[in-house]
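Practice problem 4.
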């Protein structure tokens, strides 16, 4: 029943995206494109004319923003993604991510290479693409001495901007994990992960962001279940794959430099927390903290680094180093 409810919710959201109502009037110099194709093209590759940016409200969700090209807000606190945190904002960027996890006495070292892509189609709707192109995972029959290598599961995420202002933004998301990877690397899983995320600038250059949601696997089999249960906290956003879970993520950060800094532009220190707890058939819980940083390195490129330490749960690793390279486009 949960599966059908989540599928229905995702389709309703997609229907709203593809059947928008014409919204509020815009400035004379910021008229919307004439056709849907032009709207999508300008959102994906057009210039970011921040003079056309305007706030979007909850109350006008179905009437405002659907006919406007994607536009980012430029100010002293960028909204780009952080390592191991919920987004809560819209982007137009690509991410190359790599991680290496030190094993435990029962699990060998593991590694992951992934690419993320955020493709907005208008101010209210974008699609996120998350593909682990290289996964090194332990063999559950002999985890200390042997590993499997392969690709991971592609996750596709329709994302909806509920509201945006200079000090906050809220998004509704449905992460759809597709069984494109090998079960021997803890993949080959179909799951739905709907959530609500936020980004808030409460004061100065401090940022809070996070999200709450659930993850529901839908294609467990007698073959895949033992493999997933042996290492349940791997995969997209470290969400469990072998059972349904409640997921919560909260992160805080402080921007130390501005865009006009000669070096380390928009340098930010961050601290992310991740909680996943089983909501059916057991009480397994995972909790980790990830201190991290991000900084500009020129020409709309950004470097991120983080170090995740799991504190509670069946530990898939003792610690994990993560590095990411971001390119705005």
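Answer key:
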């Amino acid at each position: 029943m949960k599966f059908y409810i989540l599928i229905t919710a995702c389709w309703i959201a997609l229907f709203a995206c593809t059947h928008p109502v014409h919204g509020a009037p815009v400035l004379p110099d910021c008229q919307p494109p004439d056709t849907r194709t032009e709207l999508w093209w300008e959102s994906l590759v057009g210039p970011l004319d921040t003079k056309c940016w305007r706030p979007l409200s909850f109350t006008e969700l179905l009437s405002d923003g659907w006919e406007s090209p994607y536009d980012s807000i430029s100010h002293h606190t960028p909204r780009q993604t952080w390592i191991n945190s919920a987004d809560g904002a819209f982007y137009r960027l690509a991410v190359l991510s790599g991680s290496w996890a030190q094993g435990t006495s029962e699990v060998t070292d593991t590694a992951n290479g992934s690419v993320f892509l955020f493709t907005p189609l208008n101010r209210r709707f974008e699609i996120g693409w998350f593909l682990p192109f290289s996964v090194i995972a332990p063999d559950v029959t002999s985890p200390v001495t042997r590993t499997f290598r392969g690709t991971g599961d592609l996750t596709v995420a329709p994302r909806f901007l509920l509201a945006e202002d200079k000090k906050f933004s809220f998004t509704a998301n449905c992460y759809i994990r597709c069984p494109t990877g090998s079960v021997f690397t803890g993949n080959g899983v179909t799951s739905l992960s709907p959530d609500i995320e936020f980004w808030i600038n409460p004061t100065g250059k401090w940022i809070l962001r996070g999200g709450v949601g659930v993850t529901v696997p839908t294609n467990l089999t007698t073959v895949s279940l033992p493999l997933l249960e042996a290492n349940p906290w791997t995969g997209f956003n470290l969400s469990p794959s072998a059972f349904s879970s409640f997921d919560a993520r909260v992160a805080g950060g402080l921007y130390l430099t501005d865009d006009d800094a000669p070096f380390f532009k928009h340098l930010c220190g961050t601290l992310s927390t991740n909680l996943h707890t089983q909501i059916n058939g057991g009480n397994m819980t995972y909790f980790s903290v990830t201190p991290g940083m991000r900084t500009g390195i020129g020409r709309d490129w950004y470097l991120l680094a983080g170090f995740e330490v799991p504190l509670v749960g069946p530990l898939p690793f003792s610690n994990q180093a993560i590095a990411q390279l971001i390119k705005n486009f």
